[in-house]
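Supplementary Methods, section 5.1.

A reviewer requested that the exact input to the structure prediction be made available. We therefore reproduce it here, unchanged from the version used in the analyses.
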Amino acid sequence: FSGSLVGIAGYVRQFIDTPISVDGLWAKIEADDNSLFKINFTQFIFSLDILLFLKVILVDKNGMIFKIGK
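The structure derived from this sequence is encoded token-by-token as follows.
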């Protein structure tokens, strides 16, 4: 499950605690020392697509990512 895009999307979601840019979010994920999730940029973008589709996040006109709900 950890290698699936749904699993990766859940992993990425945990880093969105305040509004953040795509670059800022990617930097946080790259800096994380987690042996279970080592993702590449393509997987990262696909995981954002999943989170957008599920309405877990939204991206404003300035490119900032916001978590919806809790």
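Strands lie at 20-21, 57-59, 64-67. These observations are discussed further in the main text.
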